[in-house]
Specification:
This protein has 17 helices and 14 strands. With 425 residues, the chain is an alpha/beta fold. It has three domains: 194 residues, Rossmann fold; 145 residues, Rossmann fold, CATH 3.40.50; 33 residues, Single alpha-helices involved in coiled-coils or other helix-helix interfaces. A six-stranded parallel sheet has the order 1-11-10-9-12-13, with helices on both faces. The protein has a five-stranded parallel sheet with strand order 6-5-4-7-8, with helices on both faces. The radius of gyration is 25 Å and the shape is globular.
């Protein structure tokens, strides 16, 4: 990791840049895949499964028999763990349901807002080097609570033509039964445009590799909504002498192992903790199965030594991390002053992996600085907020002249007349 001491404010923007992602090179390949699925439908999905996943498929739909069989393959201990996570995630997201509140803005004028579920949603679940069954929980649970009419799940098959049983088990637990064997950009195309087997959806959720990321961006241009712009995973840890170097190193590596293009950052105003953290990084890195991946990510990662907590907050808000771990004595200061972060983890005993799996918060979060303008996936991601209003005869008498005056000033006389004809009655 690169150590940067007392950087000048004007240098921060350049120093905090993420590893460069050149999507231009793969955009043509992705567009070709999207076009092929548009034209060939299921045939394209079957051909791509053979090409990319080495799977010989005759159908892309996962049968009920396969879903039931998957449950028997999942370890009992893992089933119990998934159930705990399911309960916590459901409890946290169910609490986000808001009851409509009617407001009388003027006597006889009542306005309110109600949630309406997005009817058709598609969930993309990666299943390559790491089958992300936890993402099934993070997406399917709030979709179910929101009342989405149709929840579709796509995940790549293995060489035997099967989706990982842990993914199928989590889907079944969440009530998702419309599941398809499709991965990569071709799955995004199927969800966005539809095939003979897969009816198109209105919004696509879920992480993926750079091909999936580009595919989501391209289909968004064609009118299919996506959850948020996504990129490689990242974490920023802010620490003082209250922090435990062993914990810091573990948290940094937990994100570094996601992929070689991931980035981890440590910010501290206590120089004495840097060396112990580096020692722990070296020790723990060598014990990881994904050592090469994490080591590559650390090459793009940085340690910032700053003068005080004010400068630390400045770096955090400029970087806008996906995950922020606050391991300092005065955590209240950071709670109050940090405005740009996807999800925040407070104290020495709150690892980022708790949010990834089982504490209850959602792990689908904005990356690449998008935490400045996006929040993570929540119940709100699966609903539209529709406004309502009802005006009585007394209300239109009161508010009508105001509307007439404003409409006439904008020279929209039909707007004015829509009020005037009512006032005459």
């Amino acid at each position: 990791m690169q150590i940067i001491k007392h950087a000048k404010h004007e240098e921060l923007s350049a120093l905090l840049k993420r590893p460069v992602q050149d999507f231009a090179q793969i955009e043509k390949s992705v567009q070709d895949i999207l076009n092929t699925v548009k034209l060939q439908g299921d045939k394209a999905l079957i051909n791509f499964a053979k090409k990319f996943d080495k799977a010989a498929l005759t159908s892309v739909r996962v049968s009920d028999k396969e879903i039931k069989a998957a449950a028997k393959q999942v370890d009992k201990k893992l089933k119990a763990a998934i159930q705990v996570a399911y309960n916590n995630i459901k409890k946290f997201h169910a609490a986000q349901v808001v009851k409509p509140s009617k407001i009388e803005t003027t006597k006889g004028v009542v306005c309110w807002r109600e949630n309406r579920a997005i009817q058709n949603v598609g969930l993309y679940i990666p299943g390559g080097s790491a089958p992300l069954f936890s993402t099934v929980l993070m997406l399917a649970i709030p979709a179910g609570i929101a009342g989405c009419k149709r929840i579709v799940l796509c995940s790549p098959p293995n060489a035997e033509g099967n989706i990982h049983p842990d993914i199928l088990y989590a889907a079944q637990l969440c009530g998702v039964t419309e599941i398809y064997k499709a991965g990569g950009a071709q799955a995004i195309a199927a969800l966005a445009y539809g095939t003979e087997s897969i009816a198109k959806v209105d919004k696509i959720f879920g992480p993926g590799n750079q091909y999936v990321t580009v595919a989501k961006q391209l289909v968004q241009k064609d009118g299919t909504a996506i959850d948020m712009p996504a990129g490689p995973s990242e974490v920023l840890v802010v620490a003082d002498e209250n922090a435990v170097p062993e914990f810091i190193a573990a948290d940094l590596l937990s994100q570094a192992e996601h992929g070689p293009d991931s980035q981890v950052v440590l910010v501290t105003y206590k120089e004495k903790i840097i060396e112990p953290v580096l020692l722990q990084l070296h020790k723990q890195l060598n014990e990881l199965p994904r050592l090469q991946i994490a080591a590559e990510a650390l090459k793009n990662s940085k340690i910032f030594l700053v003068k005080n907590k004010q400068e630390a907050v400045s770096i955090i808000n400029e970087y806008a991390p996906e995950h922020l771990i606050v391991s300092v004595k005065d955590e209240a200061y950071f709670i109050k002053n940090v405005v740009n972060a996807g999800s925040v983890f407070l104290g020495n005993y709150t690892p980022e992996s708790a949010g990834d799996y089982a504490s209850g918060t959602n792990h689908t979060l904005p990356t690449n600085g998008y935490a400045k303008v996006y929040g993570g996936v929540s119940l709100d991601s699966f609903v539209k907020k529709v406004t309502y209003q009802k005006i009585s005869a007394k209300g239109i008498k009161t508010l009508g002249p105001v509307i007439e005056t404003m409409a006439e000033a904008e020279q929209l006389i039909a707007h004015k007349n829509a009020v005037s004809v009512r006032l005459k009655k």
